[in-house]
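Aggregate trends can hide what the representation actually does to any particular protein. The sequence in question and its structure tokens are set out directly beneath this paragraph.
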Amino acid sequence: MSALRGFRRPAVWVLLWAAMIAAVTTGSLLPAQDVPRFSLPGGDKLQHAIGYAWLASGAVMLFATARARAVAAVGLWLLGGAIELAQGALTASRAADPWDLLANAAGILAGLPLARTRLATWWLRLDQRWFRAAANPL
């Protein structure tokens, strides 16, 4: 059994999730002045939580099994740790912040419960609709 949901075109959805990961990674490593910020106290942590909830929801929509989603969640959290280390070592306007890891974890934990909702199969439903329509244009 595949860890992925039963997509007609699984590569499309894997690439979409990879693009989401690339977007969060790129945004995290851009110079601080080039990234929009929430003007609230703790807005940076809110951005982390939202970004990682977005990535976790992508994993929920991509992976069919709880085990695959758990592996993805741990991988996302480790990615966040690697990004924090890179921010501290490779950027002049960013700093590694352990509180960001906590915000990332909160976002991941917020995204995973989507697995128990209809949103979990949203990408699968889009895949079936789009690629069925492409196979039968009339």
Summary: The chain has one domain: 10-29+43-133. The radius of gyration is 17 Å. The first helix runs from residue 10 to 29. The CA atoms of residues 75 and 113 lie 17 Å apart.
